[in-house]
Amino acid sequence: MNCRYLWLFLSLLLTGCSDYQWGWYVLDPTTAQGQTNLQFLIAGFYDTISVSLLSMLFAMTIGLVVALPSLSDSKLLKAFNRVYVEVIRSIPVLVLLLWVYYGMPTLMDISLDHFWAGVIALTIAESAFMAEVFRGGIQAIAKGQHEAASSLGLNYWQRMRLVILPQALRQILPPLGNQFIYILKMSSLVSVIGLSDLTRRANELVVNEYLPLEIYTFLVLEYLVLILLVSQAVRWLERRIAIPSN
Prior knowledge:
It is found in: Cell inner membrane; Cell membrane. The chain has 246 residues and is an all-alpha fold. It has helices spanning 2-14, 32-42, 44-67, 75-90, 93-108, 114-139, 143-151, 156-186, 198-209, 212-241.
């Protein structure tokens, strides 16, 4: 019965029973106009993927640096970690993005283009979440592993690099994948400062063609493809680094 109602809804939608006039020709690759529109939309993949990858890498680096003080015995370092994480997590990404793009050049007297403003804002916003991911992953490692590494004469950084972090990576890989998907979706916000990502190009095409549903439907499919590819890559990595059961 539910399938019947779903099919009825799709039939009504596709046959155009509302006042909206569907114009899928805007995405038709067989026409010169459609081909140009498709190329224009698909070209946004480069900026979306680039800003997301760089933000993820920088956020992981900063997140690890911020996470380590929370594992020390120093109250001052722990306080630094909590203040950083709580403050950054409390700032909406869009507000942070606008502040970095408009405020940072004014305060620091520097020139900042759309791309790097987006990377910096997403990096700062994501670094707080990465710090918590790393903290949880490191704390999940048994205390005996730390003691065994110390008994081998390894110093703090050697223990982290050679013993603790490789084991923690197995614990935090799924959360890292989720956070990268989050960055991919949040990267759509960089369109408000003029970066020609997927969302910006879709918005520009809507203004020119006046066919929002068709164009935004294609935009949804573009993000869906990206997220599915990331999900499959994370699952592949999980299998690669998993400890054999036998």
